[in-house]
Amino acid sequence: MWSGRRGLLRPLGCGVEELRCRRREREAALRKARREQQLVSKRLLRDEATEEAEGGCVVVILGEAEIQEFLRLAQRGTEEKERERALVSLRRGLQHPETQQIFIRLEGSIRTLVGLLTSNQALLQLEAARCLHELSHSEQSAVAEACLPATSYLLTYLSGHSSDFIELCLYTLGNLIVESEAVRRQLLPQGIVPALAACIQSPRLTVLEALGYALSQLLQAKEAPEKIIPSVLGSTLPQHILQLLQPGPKLNLGVAVEFAWCLHYIICSQVNNALLITQGALTTLGLLLLDLAAAVQRTKNAGLELLVCPVVRCLSNLLTEAAAETVGGPVHLRDERVVAALFILLQFFLQEQPSLLPEGLWLLNNLTANSPSFCTSLISLDLIEPLLHLLSVSNVVSVLVLTVLCNVAEKGPAYCQHLWPGLLLPTLLDTLALSDTEVVGQSLELLQLLFLYQPGAAQAFLQQSGLQALQRHEEVAQLQDRVHALQQTALHG
C-alpha cells in the first residue's frame, strides 16, 4: 500500500520539507487505495416469526405452471386468505435462484406482482413487497433490472404510515441500487434523494437503520461523485446524519454504524468536504471518538469496532483537508484527550480486532503530521513506549508507527531529545535487521531526522553496533558515509 522507497540518507541538503513531501505522496496513494475499498453487499430481511410459522419448509424450485397458478390465485382468488397463501408460496419459491430466473422470463409476471403491490389490501401489498425483496437479493443483475417497474412505487411507499412496510421497501431499494446502474438511472430522476431525506426524520430506529443501508448502497455507486453525492450534499441529509452520530444516550449503535459509513463514502468522494467541516463534522466525530473510547473500557464484545472503524476513517480523511486546518481541527477538544482516547482504542484493537490497528495509526499519523501540540501530547502522556511495542504486530503496523515517530522527530531538536536514545535505539537496530524494505526505509528516514537534529545520535548509534545493522543493506552505502561524517562532526564539533 505504501510505495516502495529505497532508504538512503541524502546529503544534508535534503531537509525536513523534502522528507515530509515524500511521506505525503505515499499517504495520498494510501488514501486513494482506501477510498477504493468499498463495502458493497446485499441484505435479506425475513420475519423470523413468519418463517417459523411456515414450518421452515425446504425451498423448492417452482416451474412455470406453478408460478402462473400462484399468480392467478393471488389475483383472482375468491378469498383474501387464499390470495395471501398463494403469494406466500410464491415468495418461498423465489428464494431459489432458478425460480427467480424462471419468474422474470415469464411474460407478465412482474406486471402482475406490481399490480398486487399497488392493491388496496395491506396483506397482499406486504406479501407482494416480500416477493420483490426476494428478487432484489438475487446475484444476477438481470433479476434486479426486471424489478424496474416497481421502483417508483417502492419510493412512493417510503412516505407511508407502516414502519415495517417502509423498512422492507428501503432494504429492497438498497439491494436493487447496488446491483444495477439501470436501476440507479431510473431512481435518481424519480427523486430517491429527496425521498430518503424525508424518510430520515422517522422516529423508528428500524427505519433509520434500513435507510442508512439504502443510502450507503447509493453512495458507493461508481457514478456517485458526479451524479449522486452533490444532490445528497445539497439536501438536509448531511445535517441529519451528523445529528444521528451525536454521542449520548440516544445514540443507537446499528443506526450510527450505517450512517458513519454513509459519511465515510461522502468524505472519500472529496466532492465538498469543506461543507461537512463547516457543518460540524470534525466536532461531532471528535466527540464520538471520545465517547467510543470510554465505551470500550466499559463494555466487552458489544460490536463497537463496527462503529469505531468508519469514525476513525472519517476523521483521518477530514484531517487531510485544508478546511480542517482553517477551523483548527477538533480545537474544542484538548489534544491530550484525543490522543489518550485514540490509544485506548489502539489497545482495544490490539486485543479484539488487530486488523483495525492500521486505521487507528493512520489517524494518529494525520493528527501528528502538522501539529506540534499533538506530538507534545504523545510525549507528555508517555505514549512513545506503548507505540514502540506495536512494532512487533506486523510490517504494515511497523511502517505506520515509524511514520508517526518521524512526524514527532521532524518537529525539531526539543522533540528528538525525548525520543533518543531510550527504547528507540535498540528498536531501530531491530527494525533495520528486518527484510521488509518499507520498514527499513521508514527506519532510515527516522534515523536521518534524528541525526539531523541530534548530532550525538550518530555516535551513540555506531557504539550500539548500528553500522553492522546498516551493512546488511547494500543500498545504504551512502548512509554509512553520512554516519561517518556525522560521527566526525560529533567528535570534533
TrEMBL record:
<dbReference type="InterPro" id="IPR000225">
    <property type="entry name" value="Armadillo"/>
</dbReference>
<protein>
    <recommendedName>
        <fullName>IBB domain-containing protein</fullName>
    </recommendedName>
</protein>
<dbReference type="InterPro" id="IPR011989">
    <property type="entry name" value="ARM-like"/>
</dbReference>
<dbReference type="InterPro" id="IPR016024">
    <property type="entry name" value="ARM-type_fold"/>
</dbReference>
